[in-house]
Amino acid sequence: MSRKSLDKATILQAAIELADDMGLEQVTLSSLAQRLGIKSPSLYNHIDGMRGLRRELALHGLQLLCDSMTKAAVGKAGEKALLSIGIAYVAFVREHPGLYEATQPAPDQMDEELVAASYRSVQLLLDVLDEYQLERDDALHMVRGLRSMLHGFASLELRGGFGLKLDTDESLMRMLRTYLSGMELQVRTID
Amino acid sequence: MSRKSLDKATILQAAIELADDMGLEQVTLSSLAQRLGIKSPSLYNHIDGMRGLRRELALHGLQLLCDSMTKAAVGKAGEKALLSIGIAYVAFVREHPGLYEATQPAPDQMDEELVAASYRSVQLLLDVLDEYQLERDDALHMVRGLRSMLHGFASLELRGGFGLKLDTDESLMRMLRTYLSGMELQVRTID
DNA sequence: TATAATAACTAATTATATTAGTTTTGGCAA
DNA sequence: TTGCCAAAACTAATATAATTAGTTATTATA
């Protein structure tokens, strides 16, 4: 019966597929257990209930997202790197809509580890912005802007918020280029 | 017993307060009925179940948000108007976190009326952008950028995504100014 | 081979959404 | 005023989900 003994990674993988296929809210312990061929209480041997599962999904999603962004920035710098990161971000959300949703937990379930996982993306952006030689706070404001744009774009697209027949990839590139040209303008003005 | 006979507006108001105070996911038909002093099945006399309630919240939220944005743009033009709209957007989300969350329903519950309500904000932004004399598609890409920024910023702030001790209002203003300066640059370059 | 830990199971509890069917009530017409 | 009817409340019942408690089976190991 407990033949191959399920492990947490397998459970997580099934949850991710379920989330991406059916939407995060469709990932119940029942549906997950059914997909794994076990009864839902058995899941408690591996994960800390629904809340624990959501947390694992968030951590895993943040990790994968940051990995994608990092990979996209390898060998690139400045605007090229930032555009590449932006494209990778949106591509990740398109590939993992449910998992991405899980990376945005309610504030009350935030803990140190989640904050740290989230901050890794912030650090990546700070590293790329490094060459612009901005003051620390100026760089942080820029990062907030970039994160807002990417999260907002990806979320709206995910929810079908862009109804019109207008190329979304084009919208993404323009948004990033517009923001970055505004940024360059500031940087040059300061010098 | 059915003394003053509840109406839909009263129910909606209670649901909004519940959502803003406790979070949207805490708005159950049980909790809502309890707050109204009735039993949950009685709600079905006024609303079409949980799904219907969510839809009403979305519609109402989109309406209120668009009203706020519109009011903010009265008597203003260009960058001033856009900054004012952005501030109003974020202020609305801060005031109505739960209701705002309800304005982003899953794609499968989208219908014509919701799309129309959502499009009113798009039209407002298009109207403000009118003076820049952009091509239709250029303007639409700009609007997507603005919406993405505002939604992303508001969502991240709502979820406690901005952990650092750095003024968020300042971040918002800088984000908008950076984007708008990039936009002005493009417009001027085209001329 | 026997035992201990692990991981599955069943059973039961609580909470929620929903439907069906019943009762109450408040307004309006006779 | 009185009686009727539609609206809106109610109770009861069902289905799904999360969770806990307690039980059984299996696997690894002493």
UniProtKB/TrEMBL annotation, chains A, B:
Keyword Glycosyltransferase applies: no
Gene3D superfamilies on file: Homeodomain-like (1.10.10.60), Tetracycline Repressor, domain 2 (1.10.357.10)
Domain of life: Bacteria
Positions of the HTH tetR-type domain: 5-65
Pfam name, any one: TetR_C_33
DNA-binding region: 28-47
Presence of keyword Lipoprotein: no
Keywords, comma-separated and alphabetical: DNA-binding, Transcription, Transcription regulation
InterPro entries per the UniProt record, alphabetical: Homeodomain-like_sf, HTH_TetR, MT1864/Rv1816-like_C, Tet_transcr_reg_TetR-rel_C_sf
Protein name, entry field: WHG domain-containing protein
Protein's organism: Paenibacillus profundus
Lineage: Bacteria, Bacillati, Bacillota, Bacilli, Bacillales
